[in-house]
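Hi V.,

You were right to ask for the full record rather than a summary. Here it is.
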Amino acid sequence: MTGLLTVAGGVAGLALLYYGAEFLIRGGVGLARIFRVPPLVIGLTLVAFGTSAPELVVSIDAALRGSGDISVGNVVGSNICNIALILGLCAVIAPLKGSPGLFRRDLPTMVAVTLMLTGFIGLTGGIDRIEAGMLLVVFCGYMAWQVADTRRGAEPLPGDDELRTTPAFRWYVAMLLAAGGLLALIIGSKLFVEAAIFIARRFEVPEAVIGLTVVAVGTSLPELATSLVAAIRREHSIAIGNIIGSNIFNILVILGLAPMLCPLQSSGITPVDLGVLLLCSALIWPLLKSGGLLSRLEGLLLLVIYIGYTGYLVAGAL
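Predicted structure:
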């Protein structure tokens, strides 16, 4: 019975993660407007990376519990899921076209930071505080680059769709939404991580596999919802930009902050996992370049890669 309650708590935690991120973004945008925070700052912080909030709280919670494989596996698995599963599905729904800034700034950054992550894990078997600090420094540089592009008008305002659709709230409503969203994220992450650790130990599945699959897909639900809706609406820049921006944030910020609290060891993350991550990150560039868009056939290719990789993980855990 205790085990069933733990798993049920994990399902409830997943729902709290999803809706907590939504409430935090809505309330945060409302508060920022009340205090007249420039739209550029709102877009670059609360909105642009708001969908990565579940990954952030789950990875930090797992790090504090000493489950480095779940913390790192969550990021590695989420990034693979974002590209191979979510972008693959979006492209099958509607072929996706990349913006100029994507090829000039975002895709090169994503590939570069993925190489950094692979190098760090390969050298030390995890992420220590010095390596985490390097990731955070790179993130600051990336944000400065994005601010410069936006101010020049070279790129649209990040999160512009959220800024347009979020209604004006009274200050206390916005405060309740933001506080409630944050509380939901914290409680949800604890329930979800506890369930993930329980499943790993109960069925003798490596924590890294749980992090790369169940936890990764669960925390990627906001990206999935946002990008699928954008693809259906033919809003290509949102569908692709949401995924690429989330992958950059996952590596630079989540694996920059979590090891500052507790250095991460991830012996369960194998060269195959890192190789698939590198393959997906590097492959999306030529796929988008060819013909100027990500076609349905190329989307199917990404889905096949994800299904094959997941099958490999499941087979190895049995």
